[in-house]
Amino acid sequence: MATKKVTIALDGSLVEVLAGAAEEEGIPLSRLVAGAAERELRLRAGRAVVQQWQAEHGAFIPEELAAARAEMAAADAEHLGGLGASAAGTSSTRTTSGC
């Protein structure tokens, strides 16, 4: 992928924290910032998919939200080795016609 040099303005204290995080990871600051920007774009795309699904099928019910949170906590626990996540929970699915 081709790179393009750009200039952005960030709060000085944010730059210090980001530079420290990049140094800890052993990566260039630009790679850390690019990764954060890519994550933001993935989050936005995910939110758009959820909004589209809800527009077609209705809003999520509390039980579905609880099941989704439990699944995310379990995935975090598996991925992060249990750091900061409680992995208890059950799974719930919604049955809709045509899906």
The beta-strand count equals 0
CA radius of gyration is 19 Å
Strand proportion, as a percent range, falls in: under 5%
Order of helices and strands: HHH
Overall, the morphology is extended
Q: Quickly give the structural class.
A: mainly alpha
Instruction: Tell me the span between the first and last alpha carbons.
Output: 37 Å
pLDDT < 50 runs, ≥5 residues? 84-99
Name some characteristics of this structure.
99 residues; mainly alpha; 3 helices; 0% strand; disordered C terminus
Question: Can you walk me through this structure?
Answer:
The structure is a single chain. With 99 residues, the protein is mostly helical. It is 63% helix and 0% strand. The protein has three helices and no strands. Helix 1 packs across helix 2. The longest helix has 29 residues, at 29-57. The chain is extended, with a radius of gyration of 19 Å.
Topology of helices and strands:
Elements: H1 12-25, H2 29-57, H3 62-80
Helix pairs in contact: 1-2
Task: Sum this structure up briefly.
Helix content is 63%, strand content 0%. It is mainly alpha-helical and 99 residues long.
